Structure formats: C-alpha cells, structure tokens
C-alpha cells in the first residue's frame, strides 16, 4: 500500500509541532496532577525506590573499602572479610525490601486511581450529548476505559517511582564519581551529552509520526474487531477478499508509521548505545595512568570502573522509561479528551413541556462544517403520526436525533410541549421521549430484563401488554423459558425483525408520550411487516408518533409525511396526496413496491424481476 505524507510548509509544520508539544505538556501535567492527589503515598514510594537504587551500588562501595583494607594490611584474614560480606549482603537484602515496599505502595495508589478514573469516565458518559457516541465507536471508548486507564497504572505503579529513583541515582552516582576523582568523573560522563542530544533529536523528530502511529494503531484495532465480528456476514456475501484487504491496509498503514519511527530511531539510538557505554574507553586508560602516578588509589579506580560501567545501564533504563512515558502521555490525552468533552449545558431554570406536541421551527444544522438541515419546519400535534422519508443522506435520521439533543441546532428551535428542548432538563426530556434506534442493542440478559430497561418496576402483566402491542409476545412464548430466555447483543436465536420488535416493546413499556422510531422496521421481514403495521396503527391512539421510514408501506396511514431531500423539506402531505403531487415521493414509493415484488417472487421461487 502506498502511503505518503502530504508536504506542509515550514510554518504549518512548526505550528503543528507547537500544538502537539502543547498537548503533550498538558497531558504530562495531567499525569503529575493525578499523582499529586496521592502525594503522600507516591512520595514515600519514590523515596523507597531511591533507597533501593542506592543500596544496589552500596556493595561496590563496600568492596572498595575491602580493597583498601587488603592494600593497607598486605593480607587479610577470613574473619576480617565477614563484616564486609555481611554488610554487602544486608544491603542487597534491604534493597529488595525497600523495592518491595515501594512497589506495594505505588500499586495500592495506582489501583485506587484506576478505580476512581474509571468511575469518573462512567459518570461522564451519561452527561455527554448522544451525538458524542455517533462520533466515537464503542471500541474507541472501550480502549480509553480499559487500555488507556491501564497505562495510568503503569505510570503510578512502575514508571514514576522508577523514574524518580533512577534520576536521583544518576545524580548520586555522578556526585560519588566526582568525590572519588573529578578527572575520572569527567571521563565517565564525557560521552553522555552526545547520547542525550541524539535522544532529544529523535524524540523531537518522532513527535508527529508517533501521534500518527497511535492513531493508525487505534484504526487497525477497530478494523480487526470488525473483521472478526463480521466474519459470518463477510463469508455469506463472499466479501472475504475485500474485507481482508481493508484489514491489510490498516496493518500496512500502522507498519508504515512504525517504519518511519524506526528510521528516526536507528542512527540516534545506535549513537546513544555507543555513547552510553563508551566511557570505559576513557576511564580505563586514564585511571591506569593516574594510578601509576599515585594520583588515585586502586580501590577508587575499581569503584569508578564498577560505577562507571553501570552508568550506561542507568541511562538506558531512563530512556526506556521515557519511551513508556510517551505511551502514557498519549493515553492520558485520550482520557482527557473524553473527560473534558463538552457536556450538555445545565439548565438553570428548566422549562416543563405542557403536552406531547412537537414543533420544529426554522431549524438548520451543520455537522463538522457540512450542512445537514436547512430551514426545516414541522408542526406535530399530540397524538398524531408523523413520518419522515427521503433518499439516503437527506437528513431524516438527523432531524429525529435532534429531538433527543444528540446535538443542538445551529439555527431555529425545537419545541416540546411549547418548551425549547434546550431549556428542558435532560432527564425530563428523556421521560417525554422514547427512541427506538436503527442499530439494535440487547443486553446479555433475559428477555424480561431487556424489556424492563424501559421500566425497571414493570409487572409481568405490563411486560406482556407491551410485547403484545409490539407483536412479539407469541414468539417470546415460543422461546425456551419464554420471558426468562437469555439473549445477548447478537440476539441468540432471534431474527433481526424479532430483535427489533423487542426494542419497540421496550420503548412502549417506558410509556413516554412521544415515540420516535428511527428506521426501526428496516430489519423486519415481510411476513412480520403486517404485524408492525398493526402495532403502529394502535400506537397513534394515545401517543405522538414519529417514524423515520425505510419501508414506506408502514407509514401510509400517517397523518403527515414530510419528504426531505438534501436537508430541506421537498414536500409534505398524506400518502395519497404525495403520490399525486410529489415526483420524489412517487419515485420512492415505486422503488419500495418494486423491492417488495422482488422479495415476493424470490420467496415463491420464481424468476427475479422488477
């Protein structure tokens, strides 16, 4: 797959770099602020980590004292060795004790943060406009709640204590080297600035490609899940090759940005590895020369060699933790994007709808600078039946979703019972409107539990009444265990039409005065279409009904049909009037009739024709 990066002007690239740097800084600040909320435990964990790190080099210092003793005495008795061995052993034991305490404290804090962070996200989601969930897939939100939140555990539980401990250990090591001999200390650290410069250059060059890689990785994960979950449909419609190619393209895109990062890392990382471990080439000859001239003791030289040799390991550990920190910063950015997403504004003096009437007044709406609806007007009295029809992309589903404030209108107003829905409390709005979505969702629970989502305290009689109204009681009773049959999101043994009718029954059980069906009959098979038609006819007696219609035969009895085309009202009227006066509606109706005849001929085993 050929993937290229569009060339930008230097000014645009600089501005983009500044923006990404600002986002990284904000996310890092958010990480540190999160740690500061538990600063007591975090600070103790960091101190314990530092002590553990210092104890790791203590045996080398003890060894240097032992060498001094050997040089001074000319020989050493075994009894004189044991105090040094004991001290070195105790240092190693206490190193692991302090490291263990640091790990326990940091992990207790980390899991406490995970607990509160997931609760904060869960509490945030219901306060977001429903349109947010149109932009974000369930896989993206799941990634934030699981994988990105887990990155916060790695930051608090591992990265932060180790980062603090290793950084301070590096400083302490350099101080010890200068205490032993400033010339050997300079030799030990001389190559490091070269390595640090190489790393800084790489991080700067990789900032953009790193962000693009994480985006491509997220896209690849989403495509992979769709590929796996959609395999039955893919195989049934012989779309294996095209679906596989789509997955391959997403993998290739991810691999492309990985290759870019590897190219950026290759030379600087090699240079850093050489620089981090090259100090032996300076320490050994210089130290030998200084020892031969009596400027340093043999014990000091041995200690500098041992500590200097470990200096590269400390630097490499810091670089590795820096790489982990980049991932954690990216995860925190996604968490903050969700947590700071704009909520539906609180209504200070909420209005109360007076009835179940609905008025759409000069409504215009744009999504991401694309005009969807323009100057739409609809007037629906209580207890009336309104249908919204039109070609794909006409804006009918968008208009229906605006009633539930998936988004707020750009211009105009939508009034429920005389009250602007922007001035109605969100819970009050939900109590007045039931919505059956085109995309079916059933919980992994019993039929009864799925229906009771609409009314948790519903009696069995109320369940059955709603099921009968939606024409699904009979097939429920035919299931094993009836209303106690366990279904899942995929619906188990239920057909698409049966699952959709369960969703309609759930909405009916809520008993809101306004019911909106968004393409809710799209998956109903022809045999059940008459049942749905009867259910809709029964509903109009006591509810205000709005139907976004895919199958026009289900809305022929509507009091008014509004035909949308290109975001504007192209026509309105009854079914009979529109057939006579609207060419667009007539064409839609003829296409619908033709599709029904095609299905009928297919069922009878006849020739497939219009």
Automatic annotation (TrEMBL):
<feature type="transmembrane region" description="Helical">
    <location>
        <begin position="160"/>
        <end position="179"/>
    </location>
</feature>
<keyword id="KW-1133">Transmembrane helix</keyword>
<feature type="transmembrane region" description="Helical">
    <location>
        <begin position="271"/>
        <end position="292"/>
    </location>
</feature>
<feature type="transmembrane region" description="Helical">
    <location>
        <begin position="298"/>
        <end position="325"/>
    </location>
</feature>
<dbReference type="GO" id="GO:0015421">
    <property type="term" value="F:ABC-type oligopeptide transporter activity"/>
</dbReference>
<protein>
    <recommendedName>
        <fullName>ABC transporter ATP-binding protein</fullName>
    </recommendedName>
</protein>
<feature type="transmembrane region" description="Helical">
    <location>
        <begin position="42"/>
        <end position="67"/>
    </location>
</feature>
<dbReference type="GO" id="GO:0005524">
    <property type="term" value="F:ATP binding"/>
</dbReference>
<keyword id="KW-0813">Transport</keyword>
<dbReference type="GO" id="GO:0016887">
    <property type="term" value="F:ATP hydrolysis activity"/>
</dbReference>
<dbReference type="InterPro" id="IPR003593">
    <property type="entry name" value="AAA+_ATPase"/>
</dbReference>
<dbReference type="InterPro" id="IPR027417">
    <property type="entry name" value="P-loop_NTPase"/>
</dbReference>
<keyword id="KW-0547">Nucleotide-binding</keyword>
<keyword id="KW-1003">Cell membrane</keyword>
<dbReference type="InterPro" id="IPR039421">
    <property type="entry name" value="Type_1_exporter"/>
</dbReference>
<feature type="transmembrane region" description="Helical">
    <location>
        <begin position="185"/>
        <end position="203"/>
    </location>
</feature>
<keyword id="KW-0812">Transmembrane</keyword>
<dbReference type="InterPro" id="IPR003439">
    <property type="entry name" value="ABC_transporter-like_ATP-bd"/>
</dbReference>
<keyword id="KW-0472">Membrane</keyword>
<dbReference type="InterPro" id="IPR036640">
    <property type="entry name" value="ABC1_TM_sf"/>
</dbReference>
<dbReference type="InterPro" id="IPR011527">
    <property type="entry name" value="ABC1_TM_dom"/>
</dbReference>
<feature type="domain" description="ABC transmembrane type-1">
    <location>
        <begin position="44"/>
        <end position="327"/>
    </location>
</feature>
<dbReference type="Pfam" id="PF00664">
    <property type="entry name" value="ABC_membrane"/>
</dbReference>
<dbReference type="InterPro" id="IPR017871">
    <property type="entry name" value="ABC_transporter-like_CS"/>
</dbReference>
<feature type="transmembrane region" description="Helical">
    <location>
        <begin position="87"/>
        <end position="114"/>
    </location>
</feature>
<keyword id="KW-0067">ATP-binding</keyword>
<dbReference type="GO" id="GO:0005886">
    <property type="term" value="C:plasma membrane"/>
</dbReference>
<feature type="domain" description="ABC transporter">
    <location>
        <begin position="358"/>
        <end position="591"/>
    </location>
</feature>
<dbReference type="Pfam" id="PF00005">
    <property type="entry name" value="ABC_tran"/>
</dbReference>
């Amino acid at each position: 797959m050929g993937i290229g990066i569009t060339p930008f002007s230097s000014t645009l690239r600089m501005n983009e770099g500044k923006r990404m740097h600002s986002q990284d800084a904000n996310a890092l600040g958010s990480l540190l602020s999160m740690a500061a909320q538990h600063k007591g435990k975090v600070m103790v964990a960091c101190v314990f980590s530092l002590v553990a790190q210092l104890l790791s080099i203590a045996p080398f210092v003890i060894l240097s004292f032992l060498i001094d003793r050997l040089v001074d005495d000319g020989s050493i008795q075994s009894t004189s060795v044991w105090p040094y061995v004991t001290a070195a052993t105790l240092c190693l034991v206490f190193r692991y004790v302090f490291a263990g305490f640091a790990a326990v404290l940091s992990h207790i804090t980390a899991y406490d943060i995970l607990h509160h962070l997931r609760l904060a996200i869960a509490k945030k989601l219901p306060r977001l406009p429903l349109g947010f969930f149109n932009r974000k897939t369930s896989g993206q939100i799941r990634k934030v709640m699981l994988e990105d939140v887990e990155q916060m555990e790695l930051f608090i539980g591992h990265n932060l204590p180790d980062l603090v401990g290793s950084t301070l250990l590096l400083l302490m090591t350099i101080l010890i080297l200068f205490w032993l001999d400033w010339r050997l200390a300079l030799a030990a650290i001389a190559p490091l600035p070269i390595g640090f410069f190489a790393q800084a250059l790489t991080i700067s060059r990789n900032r953009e490609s790193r962000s693009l890689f994480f985006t491509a990785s997220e896209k690849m994960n989403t495509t992979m899940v769709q590929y796996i979950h959609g395999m039955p449909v893919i195989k049934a419609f012989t779309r294996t090759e095209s679906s596989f190619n789509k997955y391959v393209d997403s993998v290739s895109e991810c691999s492309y940005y990985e290759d870019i990062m590897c190219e950026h890392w290759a030379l600087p990382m090699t240079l850093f590895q050489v620089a981090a471990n090259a100090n032996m080439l300076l320490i050994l000859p210089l130290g030998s020369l200084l020892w031969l001239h009596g400027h340093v003791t043999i014990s000091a030289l041995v200690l500098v060699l041992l500590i200097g040799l470990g200096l590269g390991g400390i630097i490499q550990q810091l670089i590795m933790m820096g790489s982990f920190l980049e991932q954690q910063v990216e995860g925190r950015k996604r968490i903050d994007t969700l947590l700071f997403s704009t909520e539906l504004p609180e209504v200070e003096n909420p209005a109360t709808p007076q009835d179940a009437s609905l008025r759409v007044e000069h409504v215009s709406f744009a999504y991401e600078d694309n005009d969807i609806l323009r100057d739409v007007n609809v007037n629906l009295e209580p207890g009336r039946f309104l249908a919204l029809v039109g070609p794909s992309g006409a804006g009918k589903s968008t208009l229906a979703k605006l009633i539930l404030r998936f988004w707020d209108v750009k211009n105009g107003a939508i009034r429920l019972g005389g009250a602007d829905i922007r001035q109605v409390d969100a819970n009050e709005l939900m109590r007045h409107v039931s919505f059956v979505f085109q995309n079916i969702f059933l919980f992994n629970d019993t039929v009864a539990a799925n229906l009771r989502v609409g009314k948790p305290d519903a009696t069995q009689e109320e369940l059955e009444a709603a099921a009968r109204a939606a024409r699904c009681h009979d097939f429920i009773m035919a299931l094993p265990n009836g209303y106690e049959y366990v279904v899942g999101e995929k619906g188990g043994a239920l057909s698409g039409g049966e699952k959709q009718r369960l969703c309609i029954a759930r909405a009916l059980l809520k008993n809101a005065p306004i019911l909106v069906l968004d393409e809710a009959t799209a998956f109903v098979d022809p045999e059940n279409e008459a049942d749905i038609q009867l259910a809709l006819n029964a509903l109009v007696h006591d509810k205000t009904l709005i139907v976004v219609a895919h199958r026009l035969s289900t809305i022929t009895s509507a009091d008014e049909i509004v035909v949308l085309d290109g975001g504007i009202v192209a026509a309105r009227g009854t079914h009979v009037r529109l057939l006579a006066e609207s060419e667009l509606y007539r064409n839609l109706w003829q296409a619908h009739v033709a599709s029904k005849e095609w299905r009928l001929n297919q069922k009878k085993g006849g020739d497939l024709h219009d």
